[in-house]
């Protein structure tokens, strides 16, 4: 298993913020946009997933969300640990609507009028928000192990919350790899084919792309965006794009109830539960997930 190779490029959007992105496949084909999860960078996506999508005839775009990787760092407040525990974002924090707007502006800058939108975890929340607020820009929606923002569903397990609370910011690359390994051992699947190698590859590359330093405040601002957006169930009911909701049955980061609630909120959504899927997309899961996405796209674009 290996991570995809990217020709990283930069673009400044109308908001004057700079974003890092990469494209795969021909720009003459239908576009699919991958939106990464909390704190994750565009290099997270496995090579197997991107290759499968490109081989099917899609033009794939992935990018660093604001406050991740090589994209812009916001100057807005980040929630304190106490505010995070209370689920209350500070005044001036941006919401998921801002991150959805970033995605639409990126599409416009790259002359992509309409695209298939795929998001995982927090990226699924952004994708849902985009489909709700910018329906004309969305051909189809795929939400992967994500949730609605309703605090009664989709919550991390207590064991996951305990590990997150005890986590310390890494001081060097070795600690960054160790920390990521420890968390993924809990929420991911180390038994999966070469998964541990992918964890280490990603953690090393993410550390380097982040300027060889930790940036917890940036991730906290993304957490603030989730908290500020609150329960989005009502807005999800406005989504008209054909929707596929994918969730695993053993997810310790976003409880499967989050996927069920998402599918229930979106009219006509298909809910697919993948047995054995944890909060991880590795080579084996890449093929399963890509096949599900492609079947969904082809079914709804005939």
Structural write-up:
- The structure is a single chain.
- The protein has 302 residues and is an alpha/beta fold.
- The protein has one domain (9-300): Rossmann fold.
- The protein is 42% helix and 15% strand.
- α3 (96-109) packs across α8.
- It is globular, with a radius of gyration of 18 Å.
- The model has no long low-confidence stretch (mean pLDDT 95).
Descriptive keywords:
11 helices, eight-stranded mixed β-sheet, 302 residues, alpha/beta, 15% strand, Rossmann fold
The number of helices is: 11
CATH topology: Rossmann fold
Which percent range fits the helix content?
40-55%
Query: What number is the mean pLDDT?
Result: 95
Class, according to the CATH hierarchy?
Alpha Beta
Following the backbone from N to C, one meets helices and strands in this order, namely EEEHEHHEHEHHHHHEHEH
Q: What composes the largest sheet?
A: 8 strands, mixed
Tell me the strand percentage band.
5-15%
Helix vs. strand class: alpha/beta
Provide the CATH architecture: 3-Layer(aba) Sandwich
Strand order of the largest sheet: 1-2-4-3-5-6-7-8
What is the topology?
Layout (H helix, E strand, L loop, with lengths): L8 E4 L5 E7 L6 E5 L11 H9 L3 E5 L17 H6 L9 H14 L5 E6 L1 H12 L4 E7 L13 H9 L6 H15 L7 H15 L6 H14 L3 H4 L6 E6 L7 H10 L4 E5 L8 H18 L2
Parallel strand pairs: 3-4, 3-5, 5-6, 6-7, 7-8
Antiparallel strand pairs: 1-2, 2-4
Helix pairs in contact: 1-11, 3-4, 3-8, 6-7
Gist?
The protein is α/β, with parallel strands linked by helices and 302 residues long. The chain has helices at residues 47-55, 81-86, 96-109, 122-133, 158-166, 173-187, 195-209, 216-229, 233-236, 256-265, 283-300, and strands at residues 9-12, 18-24, 31-35, 59-63, 115-120, 138-144, 243-248, 270-274. The protein has a single domain, classed as Rossmann fold.
């Amino acid at each position: 298993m290996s991570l995809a190779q990217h020709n990283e490029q930069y673009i400044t959007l109308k908001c004057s913020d700079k974003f890092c992105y990469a494209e795969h496949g021909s720009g003459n084909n239908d576009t699919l946009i991958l939106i990464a999860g909390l704190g994750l960078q565009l290099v997270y996506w496995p090579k197997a997933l991107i290759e499968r999508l490109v081989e099917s005839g899609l033009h794939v775009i992935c990018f660093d969300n604001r406050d991740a990787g090589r994209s812009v760092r916001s100057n807005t407040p980040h929630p304190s640990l106490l505010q995070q525990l209370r689920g209350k974002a500070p005044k001036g924090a941006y919401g998921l609507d801002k991150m959805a707007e970033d995605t639409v502006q990126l599409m416009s800058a790259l002359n992509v009028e309409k695209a298939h939108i795929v998001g995982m975890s927090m990226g699924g929340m952004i994708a849902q928000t985009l489909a709700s607020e910018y329906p004309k820009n969305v051909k189809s929606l795929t939400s992967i192990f994500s949730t609605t923002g309703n605090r009664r569903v989709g919550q991390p397990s207590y064991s996951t919350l305990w590990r997150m609370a005890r986590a310390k910011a890494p001081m060097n690359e070795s600690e960054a790899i160790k920390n990521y390994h420890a968390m993924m051992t809990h929420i991911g699947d180390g038994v999966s084919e070469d998964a541990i190698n992918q964890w280490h590859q990603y953690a090393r590359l993410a550390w380097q792309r982040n300027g060889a330093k930790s940036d917890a405040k940036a991730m906290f601002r993304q957490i603030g965006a989730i908290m500020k957006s609150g329960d989005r169930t009502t807005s999800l009911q406005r989504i008209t794009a054909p929707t596929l909701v994918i969730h695993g049955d053993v997810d310790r980061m976003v409880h499967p109830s989050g996927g069920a609630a998402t599918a229930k909120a979106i009219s006509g959504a298909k809910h697919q539960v993948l047995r054995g899927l944890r909060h991880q997309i590795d080579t084996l899961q890449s093929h399963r997930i890509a096949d599900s996405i492609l079947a969904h796209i082809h079914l709804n674009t005939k």
